[in-house]
Amino acid sequence: MSAPIYEPENGLSELRQRESSTGSSDEKHVKGHHEHEAEEYEVDTHDITKPFPPDPDAIEETHQLTIRAVFVGCCLGAIVGASNIYLGLKTGFTFGPQLFGAIFGFAIIKPLSKALPESGIIGRLFGGPFGPKENCTVQSSATAAGGIGILFVSAVPAMYRLGLLSQFPKADIGKLIALTVCASFFGVFFVIPLRKYYIVKQKLTFPTPAATAITIRALHNSRTGAVAARKKSLALLYSFAAVFVYKVATGYAPGLIFDWHIGWTLYRLGFTSIISLENYGWFIEFTPAFFGAGMLSGINASWSFFGGSILAWGVIAPSLVKNGLAFGAAASEEYPLISYNGLSFSNPDKYTSAPSPRYWLLWPGILMMLLYSFADLGMNSGAIFTNIYKAGFNWDVRTWFRDDPNYNEDEDEDLSPRADRVPNSWWMTGLFLSIVMCCAILATMFSMNVGEAILSLVLGFAFSFIGVQSAGTTDVNPISTVAKASQLIFGGIGKGAHLAQNPARTMNLTAGVIAAGSAAQSTDMCGDLKTGYLLRAKPRNQFIAQLCGAIVAVFLNVGLFILFTTATPCILYPPDSGECTYGAPSVSAWAAVAVAVSSPKLPIPASSGYTAIGLGLFAVASVVVKHLWVPKKYWQYIPNWNAVGLAFVTPQVYYSIAMAAGSAFNFMWARRSPAGFDMYMFAVAAGMLAGEGLGGVLQALLAVAKVDGSRFGTSIGCPGFEFCG
């Protein structure tokens, strides 16, 4: 996926605020609310690299892995997964299920555990005490069930867009399930050895997973947890329900209550030249999901995204059209409406001679994100290798797969009891079987030989090191961008083997699915194991919960992909104008790179290529300057070039407007009411994200049932008086 996955930057603000300017995170605290009328805080400081000390007042949890925990976790993960498919197809943004699963899981199971008897079949399955370790099981299964959606908002739709699979996904259910299984389970199995080096030895912070552990511990605090849990749960539930209903309603009157097309309205009032505002996509969309995404992403990422939109769609795109370097297509026969979003042309020469502004901007955006990610990785590589060296990383791979014969419990840095860890035989057997399965599936279904299949798996393993290190230190998972390197590698392999274009593109995108999907899955799972490590949960229980969630994720994501593409076929086959309800920028980026590396001649306009090189080098220079000469306390003022590049490939500027507004609102909220912010911020933001995402799923179902707004809604307020839902 071309767009980065932005994890909650603010998760729990107290976790972030405790980090020093040197990145130290030795002491963290959680503010628990204990009140009758006024809110008071209880501070809990702790070294976040070690498990929390046992709570003497906590119940003894004899059963941490329960049917109710896995079932509820998978259901919550399914909600987040559905939301992420919706959000990812819109802009490529997704959000992690950890805190959502932890809070909502507590809100569901805690009352259930008190209401049901502990005896009998029902009591054994759904009753009994509910503690923080079982709560960790809930979020483990939620994280796994809500993951792997990256595949279906990037490389998989790109394969259909390039005509590499059947016409519609319904005819490829078996292939899609098989491909998803390859990426999902390979990533789950090889994460276990990563836990030892990144969590136990390197002692990485993992801000969002650590915040999740702090939240779970606070919710189960016998003195303050009940009040805080009720408030967080209600805030999440109310925001989720309100946004869900609102989103469904917008499908029937989008021009009135969702999209305000200011340029079109002013044009109808006589200000004819202002129609350009509409043509370049500058209108307001009241999207709670991206307002919430801005709250979670923070000021730097959100305003970098907005600034990139201004640069790309407010400055560069109009200049390209004015100077004859890019062209639009008429979107209406009656009104001067023009689309500048075309990405496919019947005449291949038009890619270079008459591109749309969107296609022209695609290449600077991709190169900026790619070079920025690798430059940031390069500048951090010294610290990475230093940490690995200090951790005593053993480069003898054989020792990863066998127990140490000289094991001494007193010298063991892993504070989880040895009996609670995942046995080597479990993950080694699973890893071996998953490799064999991947090779067989890729060879029989996607015409990849064993060497190519193993290379894609090796790249996934290598990318996971990048992802885990980055997520563990900065809370940003760069896999979606970094994994595009696999396309460059397999592009070279395709040309070296003199493959025809379609087989070369199939290999390119299939390998990208395996490398990106497995690396993204392992990065999420490693963060999940960090949460369990802090809560003293059993890693083997988490591992089983992750496997259960991964099974749900496979069928859930395939089903959702089929649903969305059936309801909105333009996701796969956009019209020449490029207009579609789902912009799918990541799909466009993956498809464009696959075409570029497999074509005899690069289909890139010269002016676009030179601009891409210039902006890419500028992004690299800013990273170098930031790391070498700018104090860390000022880093927040340096643009996030990943977000700027994302704006170049996302023509829907109203998303960046909404995110900028959400981050500004969050900033003011934190300043004016820090207590309320700490208590409610994540719950409200997560509720908005999940509510609009699930509302989008219901809209897709209504479209399939032919009772959606396109048949029973109104086009009032829509440009050209054509329904714009």
What is the rounded distance between the termini?
A: 25 Å
Structural class call reads: mainly alpha
Q: Give start-end ranges of low-pLDDT stretches.
A: 1-45
Q: How would a crystallographer describe the biggest sheet?
A: 2 strands, antiparallel
Strand order of the largest sheet: 1-8
Would you tell me the overall average pLDDT? 83
Topology, number of strands: 8
Instruction: Estimate the helix proportion, in percent.
Output: 55-70%
Our Rg estimate from Cα atoms comes to 25 Å
Number of helices: 28
Global morphology: globular
Strand content: under 5%
Tell me what you see in this structure.
The protein has 725 residues and is mostly helical. Helix content is 64%, strand content 3%. It has helices spanning 13-17, 67-90, 98-115, 120-126, 132-145, 155-161, 173-189, 191-201, 207-219, 225-250, 254-257, 262-268, 275-279, 288-322, 350-353, 357-390, 424-446, 450-474, 479-482, 485-496, 501-535, 539-567, 585-598, 606-629, 641-649, 653-672, 674-704, 709-712; strands at residues 5-6, 31-35, 39-43, 259-260, 284-285, 329-330, 338-339, 476-477. The strands form four sheets. The protein has a two-stranded antiparallel sheet with strand order 1-8. Strands 2-3 form a two-stranded antiparallel sheet. The protein has a two-stranded antiparallel ribbon with strand order 4-5. The chain is globular and about 70 Å long.
